[in-house]
Amino acid sequence: MRRVPDLAHQRVVRALQRAGFVVIRQGKHISMYSEERSVVAIIPRHNPVKRTTLASILKEIDMDLEEFLKLL
Q1: Potential cystine with 30: which of 8, 39, 43, 58 (Cβ 3.0-4.6 Å)?
Q2: Which positions ≥6 away from 10 have C-beta within 8 Å?
Q3: How far apart (Å, rounded) are the C-alpha atoms in residues 33 and 39?
Q4: pLDDT for residue 36
């Protein structure tokens, strides 16, 4: 299985937008909502977003790594 990469927050946001998430709030963190999944993803504005943080976000939104990597 592949490891979760360190990515800039902009790349994470763009990938989630391709998956149907929309930005609902911005500040120190970016809140994104998916109507299809009925879940909110909170993305910190870090460069890079650490792999453990990204893995936790993917787990919360119930998206596997391979699906996410295809969206990059």
Answers
A1: 43
A2: none
A3: 6
A4: 94
